[in-house]
Amino acid sequence: MSLASERRAHLAAQPELLRAIRRGIEKEGLRVDASGNLAMTPHPSALGSALTNPRITTDYSESLLELITRPLPDAESLIGELTDIHSFVALRNPGEPIWNQSMPAHLPPEADIPVAWYGTSNTGMLKHVYRLGLAWRYGKVMQCIAGVHYNFSLPEAAWDLLADGDTPQDRRNTGYMALIRNFTRHAWLLMYLFGASPAVSRSFLQRAGYETRLTRLSPDTYCMPWATSLRMSDLGYKSPIQSDLQLCYNDLDTFTARIHRAVTTPWPAYEAIGTHRDDRRIQLNTNILQIENEYYSSIRPKQATGRCERPNTVLRQRGIQYIEVRCMDIDPWAPAGIAVQTSRFLDAFLLYCAVEESPLFPPPGFCQESQDNFALVAREGRRPDLLLQRDGCATSLRDWAEEALDRIEPYARLLDAHSGDGGHAAALDPQRAKARDPDDTPSARLLAALREGGREFHDWTLAQSQSHWEFLRARGLPDDTLAAYDAAARKSIADQAAIEAADTISFEDYVARFHAALGPAPVC
Fold first, then answer.
1. Nearest to 8 by CA among 413, 394, 434
2. Enzyme class, one word (predicted)?
3. CA 112, CA 299: separation in Å to the nearest integer?
4. pLDDT in tens, 296-309
5. What mean pLDDT is predicted for residues 235-252?
6. Whose CA is closest to 284, among 518, 69, 57?
7. Using CB atoms within 10 A of its CB, is residue 427 exposed (0-12), middle (13-18) or buried (19+)?
């Protein structure tokens, strides 16, 4: 019996561990007007404070909502809660639909894209200035790209079965890093199966050189013909400077040491920008990364942080609490941007990544082959007879995808054995169809809809978004649920006011304290 089979048997004998798995979602989406143009209005007060509302905040832009669920025990309750939050937004801000696509709506000139505002407290200003820095470093257009972040955790006792280590925290860290390595090896599969952003509107192409890298499909629509996800390609949420970081997923100590180096090492181009203009701070520092969250990756190890705590520091101190999958495109056919079936597949996929053997990456612990596969599938994943690299050898995407789905199936059945239905195994069936026929993938379906209907990407997406918006408004919410969200919104506004009133130091002193919280460079 293989090690993975032994581990599955142990999990099967302890169903309480599978029932204790938790998953959560952070889903981004642009507010737009009736014509599908970026909403230029402030964050709606009926939704509460973007700083302190635990369910509704903003990401980069003032117009980019981020809707956040609790950690929940199954896919049905997860997507149900996410849909509830969408319905609340639709009821309380009905005139501005959420753009249900990862690539942006029609954008104004870059200078006019509003940066998110969180109030005058030091905490709020830190978030705002960090986003100003992103604008200077990467441009505002890139920061309007949206996605679905999927959080996943196993209970502490599961790592006693799945990982080695002297303490529970050691075992948890070792296990999650192994999960991340296996995820990194197979993340291209998620791009192929769920990538849904092969096209963009012309207004996205404000950066020089973009048009020459794309094919013009119609007057306002550009695409890469074989792409699955422009969002996760080098045209999307990427930084050429960060590509040289070579972060290591072999162990948490090395990973956090390299992140520490990135957030403390100056970069000449950012030094040229400086930290202040006209006596106002425009970025937090001139280092490769202003803060840890600036690192653009398809997956992150995570630990909850408090006010003024640094993610890297709490990871070293308290260990990994959960992982965050960051590569999922918004599903334009799902009202909440992700379907229950997709959530079930992700659970089986991530359980597979956690349980299967996960060899260390070769020195220096960098996964170049896996990253190259990921980038290739984002750009050309539906190209006929596409070959990927697997341990230095060329292999067919289709063959590898079918093999991976076969290996994920036992984990889907393991989850089904303790959920009372066959939903996880059933979630594999449409993925097998996509592996056999690229025309079944979301990216192919989207391009086919544009070609067959003779429609622009913008117009098609606006119609989809408005249809979902009407459904969400008509769906409504139970009175007690609506009242609870209203109460949370009011409370968040009061909480923000209390934070602002409690500040006793200057913003510059607060920034210095925040940087100091990173601590000395770790030894690994």
1. 413
2. ligase
3. 31
4. 899 999 999 987 78
5. 76
6. 518
7. buried
E-assigned strand segments in 2-60 = 22-30, 56-58
In this structure, which amino acid lies at residue 260? H
Q: What is the DSSP letter of 460?
A: H
Q: Dump pLDDT digits (tens) for 393-419.
A: 999 999 999 999 999 999 999 999 987
pLDDT of residue 237: 65
| 182-211 core/surface letters (b: 16 or more CB in 10 A; e: else) | bbbbbbbbbbbbbbbbbbbbbbbbbeeeee
- Distance between CA atoms of residues 241 and 56, nearest Å: 31
Domains of the chain with CATH codes:
3-503 (3.30.590.20)
Rounded (5°) CA angle 154-156-162: 75
pTM of the model: 0.97
Question: What does each C-alpha distance from 262 to 129, 286, 345, 466 come to in angstroms?
Answer: 19, 11, 34, 42
Two tokens at 396?
């067919």
Q: How far apart are CA 500 and CA 481, in angstroms?
A: 29
pLDDT band with cut points at 50, 70 and 90 for residue 367: confident
Strand, helix or coil for residue 393: strand
